[in-house]
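REQUEST ID: PR-0412
SUBMITTED BY: lab tech R.K.
PRIORITY: routine
TASK: structure prediction, single protein chain
INPUT:
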Amino acid sequence: MMTQPFILSPRYRLDDSSPWLEGVDPSRRYWLAVNSNQQLQVVIPGLWVSSVQELKEVILQFRSLQPQEKMVIKRMISGFTIQCISSNCYAIQGRVNGALAWHLFDKEAIESLLMTGHPDWIPSPQDVELGRKLLEAAFRQPAYAI
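STATUS: complete
OUTPUT:
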């Protein structure tokens, strides 16, 4: 019996030949096809800011990250951490089918995702559908009494 969790490291770049970004829903969650496998999707909380100045601060903080440094992106309910692995490799931790995963991104990909946090950003109609899909899944979950 295996006692250690299996760690995955899918990687994503904007110039990948296979699409990995399914979309960014209205609440700024990033929908990823793990290693471009459309049958294996994950949702990562994204950046949500209230002002352009706050967005600039986050982008500047990201750009200043050095290897082994990390920054925490906080949201009302959840958040995520960007870990700088090297000068052009950043990791965001998540789970894929229950297994711990470090989703690896290049700098350009992370900056593009963070830019969707802009207060004036408007999702595409397809991205709105992703948000609806997540809500539908939440309503299918059984309710537990406290």
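NOTES: Residues 125-140 form the longest helix (16 residues).
REVIEWED BY: pending
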